[in-house]
Amino acid sequence: MLKIKLHWQILIALFLGVLYGMFLTGYVDYVSWMGTLFLRALKMVIVPLILSSIISGVSNIGTAENLGRLGFKTFVYYVSTSTLAIITGLVVVNLVQPGVGADLGLAQNVEHLKVTERSFVDTLYSIIPTNIVEAMAKGEMLALIFFAILFGYFIMKVEHKYKTQLTDFFNGVFNVMMAITMFVIKFTPLGILGIVAKVVADQASAGGLLNIVGKLGLYMISVALALLIHGTVTLPAILRFVGKLNPIKYAKVMTTPLLTAFTTSSSNATLPLTMEAVEHDAGVSNKITSFTLPLGATVNMDGTALYECVAAMFIAQAYGIDLSFTQQIVVVITALLASIGAAGVPMAGLVMMTIILSAVGLPLEGIGLVLTVDRILDMMRTVINVWSDSCGAAVIAKTEGETLKIEETK
User: Fold this and answer.
1) Alpha-carbon distances of 27 from 30, 202, 368, 369, rounded to whole Å
2) What is the DSSP track for 368-390?
3) DSSP alpha helices (H): ranges in 117-187?
4) Cα angle value 249/87/267 (rounded, 5°)
5) In which element (H, E) is residue 350 found?
6) Full pLDDT tens readout for the chain, 410 residues
7) Domains in the chain, ordered, with CATH?
8) How many Cβ atoms are within 10 Å of 176's Cβ, its own excluded?
């Protein structure tokens, strides 16, 4: 029996949704309910999924004491490069402004964003919840992520028997939530059909539809440009000036895993090839590769975090919403923190997108727009994820005093 891959199902649903919205405008309510149910299902899984994912991921790192100097360097590198990636995406999307002029006509429905009336200081205060149950109920993502990271860290500090019990418990919860998430994701094509049909039907004319298609093309260019800058300027600069390595030589030995990352769109599937290239071809020690690369494939997502930032800004622009400086900072912080927990989640981009949009109160319907062109961008951002992980291993090895094999070749 022929089984169509999910991304092809989504593209078919997009095509059908466009046709339905154009020619059956008066009957759009017959399919729009599928989009509504899909978005509600996504909201349903967000809180337990992210809570269990982050706690499980942090608590499985090992004992807090064993992380030591190597763990600290790895953490600093991952946070630094992810932050630089997100800022790069933010600068590019503000310069290009791909969503401006899309005019989806729904801005009046989202006039009051969650952080609209908050100052920057109030936003920072809100990261630490006074009532975590209330924060979960209200979907306060920054507070939820902060608490989950804190909880996961202190699981590593308690007695061994409690640590084992808690780690096993949250691993089990995470596996159950992944199963539920996969079940919800199976209905993505139907959700996209309902969302897209309604968006198209809401357009006053075919010209409005063509405008959206053009804006999506500009959005894809914005993401690709930001990824290119981070991959060919920022990361090579870190290799050169922090690691004292030749970026071109290092890129050559990483050719196979980078091509594999592009074709598979999976950092985890590429991990064995990445470790092989970094350890045996570049000459990084097993001690460094065995710690930094598996951890990086789980929590370090430069490309994905950058993409999510650009996508959230594009959705805001497309709905005619002008995000303030504070709100853009919230997008940056949420993208950074969410990248820690969403990395091991199926269709991590979809989950992270929902988290970021919820954090600043943007309409989740915007997911239907960006998800339709997600596949090719997923391939691009996975390359950057893997490239960042491999650069991190080399840089950390150099700071540990190692001499790499590629330094000995002419």
Assistant:
1) 6, 12, 19, 21
2) HHHHTTHHHHHHHHHHHHHHHHH
3) 120-126, 132-138, 141-155, 160-185
4) 50
5) helix 348-360
6) 557 777 678 778 878 888 888 888 888 889 989 988 988 887 788 788 778 877 877 777 655 554 567 778 888 898 899 999 999 999 999 999 887 776 554 444 444 444 444 555 666 677 788 898 988 887 777 788 788 878 988 888 888 889 889 989 998 998 898 788 778 888 888 988 888 888 778 764 445 556 677 788 899 999 999 999 999 999 999 999 998 889 999 999 998 889 888 877 777 768 878 888 898 888 888 878 877 887 777 677 888 889 888 998 998 888 888 887 777 888 888 777 776 655 545 456 667 777 788 777 787 777 877 877 777 888 898 899 999 999 999 999 998 888 887 776 55
7) 6-407 (1.10.3860)
8) 13
For residue 134, CA distances in Å to 147, 211, 258, 363 come to 13, 41, 43, 22
Torsional sign, CA 277, 282, 285, 289: negative
Q: What is the pLDDT of residue 386?
A: 92
CA angle centred on 224, ends 219 and 225, rounded to 5°: 95
Q: How far is CA 276 from the centre of its chain?
A: 26
- Using CA atoms, how far apart are residues 168 and 304, in angstroms rounded to an integer? 28
Which residue matches tokens 């993505």?
A: 188
Contact in structure between 16 and 324 (CB atoms under 8 Å): no
User: Taking Cα atoms as reference points, which of 377, 206, 211 lies closest to residue 303?
Assistant: 377
State the Cα–Cα distance between residues 305 and 338, nearest whole angstrom: 8
Q: How far is Cα 186 from Cα 175, in angstroms, rounded to an integer?
A: 17
Contact 278, 289 (CB under 8 A): yes
Longest dimension (CA), the chain: 70
Rounded-to-integer distance, Cα 398 and Cα 250, Å: 13
User: Do 195 and 35 meet the contact criterion of CB atoms below 8 Å apart?
Assistant: yes
- Joined tokens for residue 241: 């000036």
- Region at 347 (left for phi over 0; alpha for psi -120 to 50; beta for the rest): left
Token pair in block for residue 265? 């769109």
3-class secondary-structure state, position 325: helix
State how far the Cα of 277 lies from the Cα of 195, in Å rounded to an integer. Answer: 43
